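Re: the request from the purification team.
They wanted to know what the chain is likely to look like in 3D before they choose a buffer screen. I agreed to run a prediction and write the result into the notebook, where they can find it.
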Amino acid sequence: MNERIDAFFPQLQSTTATFYDRMVILAVPLLVAGLIFKLWQSSDPANAIRSIVAVGVTGIALAFFPDWSNQFQVLIYDVMEDLNANPAETHTRFASLVGGASAGVGEKNSIIDTLFAPNGGLGDAILHAIVYLTAKCAQLIMWVAFIAQQILMLSGVAIAPLFIASLLVPALGHTALKYFTSLAAVTLWPLGWGFASSFTDALLEVAAEDGADLIDFGADVGLAFVISLWLLISTIAAPFVIWKVVVNGANIGGQFMRSAGQALGLTVVYGAGASVTAANAGASKKATTAATVVGGASGLVTGSAQSSGLMVPAMIGVGAAIASKNSEAVDHNANAQALHKKYS
């Protein structure tokens, strides 16, 4: 992952910088209003001096806040690098182990190699494909989330001057603090991925112990699926976990465990709910199976985000039934003959 906020969107960076300058102009009246309110509230000279100093500090913050937010973002990635927690490399390493490399040493095996290997077979090949795709999906999800974080950071910093000035207005101070707390939570998303990555690294060390391949249709099968599920769940859950840690002061480990449990539970519930709804609505077997898969996937995502929605599996099931009926072949000649007999 790139450490610079402006690396992905150089044009958006300049646009939001211009917007920030316009917001600074709007923030000045708030600063003046805050100063006047402070001076009017008390005639104490010490209070006047403190108010003037506060306005001066706020003015400095307005001038340097974009640079501070950028440097804070870089600092977060420096901390992750010092801890050797790199989520992108973890996903790549997992995919490599699934391909047959042992602790970074050895030749990778394709799905075809696994299928026709002396000790392989269809089960090994299917497991190979599932966990390999899981690693790639987790890597893609994290990349998309990283892009989303950059956009949220740029837009959040762009309107920050209004909230910086609001810190001096008693009636608006609480709202401003909540805004900067939420902005800090977005900045700290990578720490969530780093925490999850550290745990995944420990699982990978166990999987690659003594040079053993991760894919071994025996004792390691359960471990392979555990790592696969953990990669998906932790990648999706990390931003939501960090948000609750920063905003609500929750325990990061407990929140990850809660996300994992909720994700697994909703995967089963949503999959079963979508399947039953589709079957009751008259969907075909293929459509019902598709509804089960989509419902389970939506449950995994929803549960990882520590959310739920009872209507989701029902909507998926009904949608599968409608799609199934719309895809059924229609004998237009028979319909035409029926109409001819009816009205002739």
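For the purification team: Residues 251-327 form one domain.
Please add any questions underneath this entry.
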